[in-house]
Amino acid sequence: MYLRYTTKKTDGKLHRSWRLVRSVRIGRRVVQQTVAHLGELDRAGRLRARALARALIGEPEQADLFDDGVGEETVAVKLKGVRVENGRQFGNVYLALALWRACRLDEFAAAHIPSGKEEVAWEKIASVLVAARLCEPSSELHIAEDWYRRTALSDLLQLDESLVNKDRLYRALDRLLPHKAALEAHLAKRAGELFAIDNEVLLYDVTSTYFEGKAEANPKAQRGYSRDHRGDCKQVCIALVVTFDGFPLGYEVFAGNTHDSTTVKHIVATMEARHGMVGRVWIMDRGMASADNLAWLRQTGRRYILGTPKSELKQWAPALADKTAWREIRDGIEVKLCASPQGEEEIFILCRSKDRVEKEKAMHERFSARIGQALSKLRLRIEGSKKRLDRDTVNRQIGRILERNQRSAARFKIELKEAANPAGFTLDIGIEETFDEWAALSEGTYLLRSNVTDWSDEKLWKAYIQLTQAEAAFRIQKDQLSIRPIWHQREDRVEAHILICFLAFVLWKTLEFWQQRAGLGNSPRTVLDELARIHAHDVILPTQTHGDIKLRCVTHPDAAQTALLERLGMVLPKRIRSPLGAPDVPLQSAAA
Length: 592
Hints:
alpha+beta, Nucleotidyltransferase, domain 5, nine-stranded mixed beta sheet, 41% helix, disordered C terminus
């Protein structure tokens, strides 16, 4: 990653605009991708970034953490013996701790998990777990035996690596879990303070994550519909609620065989008890839109925007065929408002996307071609057979062909007809014309329903589309924070693992919002990986009078890292102290 700039002359003044780029290999070519547009790195921009950083993480660290604690002294150093040792990742964990403190999780943990006779404060161990999940997701054993000693957390937390072991990490999980509800309320309040997040519109979705192992001691570990395509494994379902901007408000864990629609009442009641219910609008996908849920939402006066099952489009065929009253709300998106057929205080919104039309059309064509080819091969085998075939076996083969290509299965009329050939029958293949007619009418179309009657059709559609924020949250937790697979077997440890992933996702979104306001795009992993290249080292200075002096120093950022830090408004220290009880001077006395 490196900096590039372009120059532009305006009103006789030369302006230099910077951008951060990286080289990416695509096939045989190496192309440059822009990570962020930095604009002019002028003094005013730097001051704005510093103000934003102070609002998030306060003033820079206390001087006593980074100073050596002694006054200036001149010492002669043997230059030939100067060496650098013990390099450790600094920039990414420094940022992770800054985010932890920005969310005031240190204060929360210190207040809710008071230390007794423990040698180490539980707040520090909890911060290690969450920082590790954010920077390099791994098991507690890996954190204790490898990751922690490769980072500068021992210096930043003043916590020697000998005190971080898997048993202490496991106990921290157990101590943190009982405070899940209070944590969610605390984080929702803090997000409002930092980013003025509006939580009046809530997005709700469900996903699953699977286990490695039998998980026999966990009653919630069950087999069910797997979003990870791991039907061979037990799983749990996770219901997540996020704000309109995608900031997580809370979650609940359900048994792996729980249907999405059965979680709605519990989630709505739980979140409203935690965050209040006045004025809230719930947005859910079609998996939640059961008749029971709709009746409950209406009877209790809750406002909602729901997707509807594809099968319900059939009753709207006349409205789909009518080319009037459609309104284009943006390029390629048309909507049409329709009244409720039951006369209730509810509206329906027909939505059609040109891109989705092309996508579904291509899918139907692809699956139809696969079915046609497979059936043609099967018919040739039947006609070429020299012995009688079992009709049931052939029917099962047809069933497997249709099952693998369900999108277009209804397009084909298939019949085994009696015939005077060796096989005893022949395969007759026809096409349902009504399928093609309905596909041409309904491709790219979906139906929304809502009892929010004071919003425009465009506002309703935009709100529903924000469900992609919940889907993105699941992708980040699975791909970036490795919530799957779950290796823990006990129910409480599984719940604690998911809680740590949730807290890491809160830090992820905090960094993402920080980036966006600093003009750095929305890729936290890029920033974390880039800052991970900033290391802390022990610089050993051999002297004639004071033995070997060890200084713990932070490497100077390169141009790209400096640009990132300036845009974020962060200032890295140049020196750090050793953990408590491990002074950095001298290593050996002059007499030795």
